[in-house]
């Protein structure tokens, strides 16, 4: 079997443009005040293990339809899509824009959300991508200079758009680093990589590797399970069938 095709991705979006009579923390803004809906500015991604980071941007009219149509094809060609808060933000935003443009539905995508698995497995000071990346000794997110970059992109500034794409691409490379660093330390994932890679559960559930050795036992109240340590990623896992004792 070939290695599973794992995609790490990120999007950057423009904000909603609204008409409001006042500002403040307790101001309520109705959907009737929206002058322009939020759209996706850029989508960046790479395949785990490959060097190139790919990108797509909205067109000269700031329309995201063509970009989304092209990326849906990419998404449907991989085994797993990985995002940081990807399930709640990136994927839902992509689906919403596909719905708006009446593009093909995005369904049955196997996903790994590194924000979710970070919260489930580690008591960190923060679960933001920037923090985790720096915690692991990597670069972290690129400094954008704040809201001004988004405003300049909205105005059609080409240099600002290029900077936005660069910012998004760095998020993708940092996400890959975080993913590969934290996986061996996680108890479980929403996707069993052995099923994707091998078609069954005979391999490591984290990476799908089939090179592992016995690593002691896990004892529950009634049963004892054989544990194994993956020689590819270092993850320790147990078999599904217990040894009766």
Structure, described:
The protein is an alpha+beta fold and 245 residues long. It folds into two domains: 6-184, Nucleotidyltransferase, domain 5; 199-244, no CATH class. Helix content is 33%, strand content 22%. α4 (129-135) crosses α6 (158-182). The mean pLDDT is 91.
Using the alpha-carbon principal axes, give the shape: elongated
CATH architecture of the largest domain: 2-Layer Sandwich
Give, in spatial order, the strands making up the sheet with the most strands.
Answer: 5-4-1-6-7
Which class best fits the helix and strand makeup? alpha+beta
The fourth-level CATH homologous superfamily of the largest domain is Ribonuclease H-like superfamily/Ribonuclease H
Q: Supply the number of structural domains.
A: 2
Main sheet specs: 5 strands, mixed
Round the mean pLDDT to the nearest integer and report it: 91
SSE ordering: EEEEEHEHEHHHHHEEEE
Distance between the termini: 36 Å
Helical content class: 25-40%
Global Rg: 21 Å
Strand percentage:
15-25%
Q: Name the assembly state.
A: single chain
- CATH class wording of the largest domain: Alpha Beta
- Number of DSSP helical runs: 7
Number of strands: 11
What are the key terms here?
245 residues, alpha+beta, Nucleotidyltransferase, domain 5, 2 domains, 5-stranded mixed β-sheet, 4-stranded antiparallel β-sheet, 7 helices, 11 strands, elongated
């Amino acid at each position: 079997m070939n290695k599973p095709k794992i995609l790490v991705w990120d999007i950057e979006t423009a904000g909603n443009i609204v008409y409001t009579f006042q500002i403040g923390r307790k101001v309520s803004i109705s959907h009737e005040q929206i002058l322009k809906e939020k759209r996706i500015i850029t989508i960046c991604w790479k395949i785990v293990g490959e060097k190139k980071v790919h990108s797509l941007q909205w067109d000269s009219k700031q329309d995201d339809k063509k970009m989304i149509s092209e990326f849906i094809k990419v998404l449907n060609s991989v085994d797993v899509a990985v995002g940081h808060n990807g399930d709640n933000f990136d994927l839902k935003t992509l689906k919403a824009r596909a719905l708006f443009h009446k593009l093909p539905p995005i369904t049955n995508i196997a996903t790994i959300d590194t924000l979710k698995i970070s919260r489930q497995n580690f008591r960190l000071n923060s679960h933001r991508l920037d923090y985790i990346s720096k915690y692991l000794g990597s670069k972290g997110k690129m400094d954008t200079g704040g809201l001004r970059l988004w405003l300049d992109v909205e105005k059609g500034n080409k240099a600002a758009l290029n900077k936005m794409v660069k910012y998004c691409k760095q998020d993708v490379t940092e996400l890959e680093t975080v993913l590969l660093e934290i996986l061996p330390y996680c108890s479980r994932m929403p996707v069993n990589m052995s099923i994707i890679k091998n078609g069954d559960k005979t391999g490591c559930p984290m990476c799908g590797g089939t090179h592992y050795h016995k690593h002691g036992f896990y004892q529950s109240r009634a049963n004892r399970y054989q544990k194994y340590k993956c020689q590819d990623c270092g993850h320790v896992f147990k078999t599904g069938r217990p040894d009766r004792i």
